[in-house]
């Protein structure tokens, strides 16, 4: 019998405390997410509606199939910066005319949809997701171009947006631009480099330079319509492939374009009607202890996200700080690596490397559930080969070609973050729970190391060491690192693709796995040299 048996008692005091802490964290995240949903605020939205225009989210809603889910990605981009939360862009994966697509919509209620450093970072991440998973890209365009005060941060890297569109097209991944308003200057290349372009009568404005700039540069007198209006591009320049009379018509045409793509997923679920987990998703709130001050069993998480709570564990008695095994999730096969007690030892690293090789041989996607403080340190472990064994695990992760998904549940520190396929190792998707923490090391440990290094430096120079000042500095460092390790900070930097409610974990991962299978899933037997 491979069905997991839960020992969680939701009524126990520690479970109630964990649930309460998680709900409070979700409230904080919900408040920031609401800012992204609000866009430029009530006045800006009202002004936009008064012009007869839909908001970015309303456009997306009409574009999607009825009752189709929308997996919004990087919703908190820009959190903690001087820019609006969300990065002036709404993006995610949704089903359009039966096809899973990557949607990227400028939010014109936020500074006219101008592109700032965070909207750029978010857009480039969306292109990565589209390329790796072979998702058609639909750009819902209405932008005044670059945010000029930040042009030095936007201009040079911003060219990758246009390069990416052409490379997606070259790879056979369709790109579609629905232009709802301004698409000017460099932004004119968004439709210019898309496979399919829809412009709207007396709404779309696509030109490299508007009338004032043309007048200043050449002395020529012109107006918006003759210079870059939809009718001109439909009749004269040929930029427009389709001419819409209004926004709903443009969305209708966009849906028809997708319907005619003859696009097919590489594979579907292997089980058409998967059984749900045997335990309630609501109980996922009660698993992670507040402050991560105690260990928790990741099998309790696995039991509440995989089909029928059925999990075939591999090497359960060896390297027990890492749980590995096979399951299905929404009918898709998946291999799971989950940290059980935080620290990774040599046995865990070798176990992980073997399991990753097995997943590649069977062409099975991998799910990494993070709760690690890193690889074990100390003379005994160094002499036992922890470096070469940790390198073996990272080698396997780096060269594995099956799709990876990372979910940060608890700690994700140091090289353990890398070994568990952190963002730098190109997982197809990275999500986080509100309980997640990620940094070079724990805040207390980092502050201790800094203090010890300062003390040793002072003694080496024969200088007195001010313990009181060191304690003040230590507290400041600990507070800084604690703040920087929080999930909203990391999500604001687009180091993950979104913070999710634990109760939604199964469905979010299911949507991600479905998107992944738009592209072929293929493993490899080519790894770097393993140090034995």
TrEMBL record:
Residues 22-273 form the CoA carboxyltransferase N-terminal domain. Gene3D superfamilies: 2-enoyl-CoA Hydratase, Chain A, domain 1 (3.90.226.10). InterPro entries: AcCoA_carboxyl_beta, ClpP/crotonase-like_dom_sf, COA_CT_C, COA_CT_N, MCCB/AccD1-like. PROSITE patterns: COA_CT_CTER, COA_CT_NTER. It holds the Pfam family Carboxyl_trans. Residues 280-526 form the CoA carboxyltransferase C-terminal domain. GO terms for molecular function: ligase activity. This is Acetyl-CoA carboxylase carboxyltransferase subunit. It comes from Actinoplanes nipponensis.
